[in-house]
Amino acid sequence: MTFTVELVLKSYMPKQLEKGMWFITKLHQGTLKEYSEIWALDKLPIEPMEDFILKNGAPVEPYLIYGDDVVAHPHHIGWWDEGPEHDDLRDIELKDVNLIINEYDGYVEIEIDEHDFAHEEVLSPILYADKVTICAPETYNEEDDDDEGPWLCGACNGSGYGSTPDTTCLVCKGEGEVYDEKDDNDYDLDDNS
Questions:
Q1: What SS3 string covers 71-129?
Q2: Please, what is the end-to-end C-alpha distance for the chain in angstroms?
Q3: Among 10, 27, 67, 186, which is 20 to 30 Å from 122 by CA?
Q4: Range of weakest confidence among 28-37, 41-50, 100-109
């Protein structure tokens, strides 16, 4: 089961700068094109740490949050799941974090233990190799998986009757229910045979 949580980047003050630390830069501030870019320190700066942080801000770490609760700490983040068409999980990358922050306002879905959530209302992420699996919102629309029908026929509103009471509906064949999601416009409803 997947559950929506928020990816939050919290700043911290390090003892020293290290390669790989994440930073945020706001681009086009105050315009409709405003967005955030999360980037990693690829080499240590020549300038003193205080000057670098004054210019670039403090480094940030990712947390998964639900309400006031921390669901996952930085060391648990994580695997990126590209969806049901891909079999493999991969390490989350900065491009994924930038996508989450800018396209999904920081919201992601994670795999949780369905039993714990249903019985104890505890949000327990499932860990693989000590990492949380993260995907974009609505990557797995679980309602669609369970919704196999039957549905009330849209052509006869579930009555089973055709254009007159003595004929049966051509779409549902008088049953009043359909099991496939064909559009009612796919059928010729004027044929009363």
A1: EECHHHEEEECCCCCCCCCEECCHHHHHHHHHHCCCEEEEEECHHHHHHHCCCCECEEC
A2: 47
A3: 10
A4: 28-37
